[in-house]
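tool_call: predict_structure(chain=1)
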Amino acid sequence: MMGFYSLYCPILPLLLINRKVYRRATEVIFTMWESFAVALMEVLYGVRFFMSGDVIRPGERSLLLLNHRNRLDWNFFWGALAHASSPPAHNCKIVLKSGIRKFPGLGWIMQMSCYLYIHRRWEEDQRLMSNILDYYRDINHTFQILLFPEGTNLTKETKKKSDEFAVKAGLPFLTNVLHPRTTGFTYLVNKMRNGNQLDAVYDITVAYPHTLPLTELDVLRGKMPEEVHFHIKRHPVSSLPATDEGLKTWLAGVWSEKDELLQTTLSQGHFPESSTNLSHPPVNASYLSVLFWLPLTFGMAYLLCTWWVVQLWCLVFTVFFMVISFGTNGLQHFEVWLYRRQTRYKKISEKTSSPLEQEREN
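tool_result:
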């Protein structure tokens, strides 16, 4: 919240002045904040991240597939991005449930960072995702999209529903993952591939060999994993099937392999290609993040409690984002609307000015 009020709110006017700078600034600040989340886990809680398999290439436009073991996987995934990206940079967007955009602070920040929110109503979700992806294509944006094909995290209740689906569809039971939903996956692959926005698909498997927090409440109680293991497998876009049915079969096969891999990993404590000696210690950026974010957080909180100007500042932006979050599909779609409007105006201006320019030349 303090980072939102002190860093994000001041750059909001850039959305109207210079969207290119605005887009860059929001993504740089968000990456800085991700490093703070990783720093809290590594430096303060002693969480260790273990990597095996391929590296993530941030220069690619890619789709990242991750199994959903708990509600916090996407937070721990920032640790994987910090250690598995080569070079150590990324621009990862997450496909999230629409309600998260309403969360004070983080949800508002993700709107400004142009994330993809879905409502679980396919026609509307398809339209909203297409709106963002077309915008990325038009501005020649390099990005990665993180998708949870299972749609929800693994619990006893969701496992039961997954098994019931397997019986109806004639599929084998899975032990450590849920059967993936294929509609969103096939749509994203086709949409990104047709727009020349897909270089590779990364199959990423996360495992928690020891302590496993399931909810945000577990973290508040201090229940943090000692180790988080990631295995990454890169699939070039040329290796993917060309048809929807082929993509569905491919994804089912990937998830079946993931289930077997997790079974081995949980029994031996690490992925087959990894070793307990390959723990990733905190990167230097983690210590720098602590030195930057902690003074900023407490300093902004102090000003919020003591200075009416800051109180008014925070109130104005809180009301603004509450209205945007509950009254629209998010600030990210207003950004796209502004871009479309400017593009149409520019085309009209060019058509109007071209006869005049020809007359001047004559």
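agent: The chain has a mean pLDDT of 91. Proceeding to next step.
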